[in-house]
């Protein structure tokens, strides 16, 4: 279970770092209120990454909130990737759609692993 918790923590950290990097890149080229309007989307990535980190702490300590957060977050990501696959197939970018399917398979394996070890979670 520690491997999955570390994987979830790394994913959350990467979401945060990616959002901060994109915010700083956008700030270099835009002046005034455009900075505020363009960075609102990236705050969602920071919040989502923080929730991933909280979930990984719960998985490390074997708490029920970590269990439920991990299941819900990865279910949301699978739905997001299903929409991305549909979009990529419509735009005839099949290689990227195959990449999304591979990433979704990893997410599904994480969900199954967490569900099978439900009895380890307390409090």
Automatic annotation (TrEMBL):
UniProt entry tagged with the keyword Transmembrane helix: yes
Keywords associated with the record: Membrane, Transmembrane, Transmembrane helix
Transmembrane segments: 35-60, 67-90, 96-114
Classification of source organism: Bacteria, Bacillati, Bacillota, Clostridia, Thermoanaerobacterales
Organism field: Thermoanaerobacterium thermosaccharolyticum (strain ATCC 7956 / DSM 571 / NCIMB 9385 / NCA 3814 / NCTC 13789 / WDCM 00135 / 2032)
UniProt protein name: Uncharacterized protein
Highest taxon above the source species: Bacteria
């Amino acid at each position: 279970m520690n491997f999955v918790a570390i994987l979830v923590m790394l994913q959350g950290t990467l979401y945060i770092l990616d959002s901060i990097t994109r915010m700083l890149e956008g700030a270099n080229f835009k002046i005034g209120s455009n900075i505020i309007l363009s960075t609102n989307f990236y705050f969602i990535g920071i919040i989502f990454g923080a929730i991933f980190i909280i979930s990984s702490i719960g998985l490390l300590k074997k708490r029920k909130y970590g269990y439920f957060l991990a299941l819900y977050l990865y279910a949301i990501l699978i739905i997001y990737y299903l929409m991305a696959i549909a979009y990529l197939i419509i735009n005839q970018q099949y290689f990227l759609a195959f990449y999304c399917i591979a990433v979704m398979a990893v997410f599904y394996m994480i969900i199954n692993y967490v569900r099978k070890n439900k009895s380890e979670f307390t409090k």
